[in-house]
Specification:
The protein has about 120 residues and is mainly alpha-helical. The protein folds into two domains: about 80 residues, no CATH class; about 40 residues, no CATH class. The chain contains five helices and four strands. The strands form two sheets. The protein has a two-stranded parallel ribbon with strand order 1-2. Strands 3-4 form a two-stranded parallel sheet. The radius of gyration is 23 Å and the shape is flat. The chain starts with a helix and ends in an 8-residue tail after the last strand. The mean pLDDT is about 90.
Length: about 120
């Protein structure tokens, strides 16, 4: 339905007022792509977690939800089309510090299979 609305109304940006972007942002981006819109021209106003779930006063929650939506609308007006790019990454880590935190971090990194870089500095 969203894809059809985008096409039927010649939209070039989309604001969704719903739940956390973490849940459905990738779905909405796929819909925008299928409708011929750059997926980075999407803004999600998280009115569930940031308004309805955290306020007991329905009027204040509704007012805040409208403010969140207005902010998303203003932001999407300034958004620019982006393109995805990929880059190769060398997965190495340098842990600085040999205290408890540094040792634990080194062990955690080693346990997930990351390579640790060791560096010796000449001290003069």
């Amino acid at each position: 339905m969203i894809r059809d609305d985008i096409k039927n109304n010649s939209l070039d940006r989309v604001v969704v007022a719903a739940c956390s972007p973490r849940m459905h942002e990738s779905t909405y981006k796929k819909v925008l792509t299928a409708a011929g819109i750059n997926p980075y021209l999407l803004e999600i106003a998280n009115i569930r977690e940031q308004a309805s779930w955290v306020h007991h006063d329905k009027n204040k929650a509704t007012s805040k939800a409208f403010d969140l939506i207005k902010m998303a609308l203003e932001k999407v007006k300034k958004d620019e089309a982006l393109s995805s790019m990929s880059a190769s990454v060398i997965q190495r880590v340098l842990v600085i510090g040999a205290g408890i935190a540094g040792i634990q971090t080194s062990l955690d990194i080693a346990n997930i299979g990351m390579m640790l870089s060791s560096s010796k500095r000449n001290r003069a």
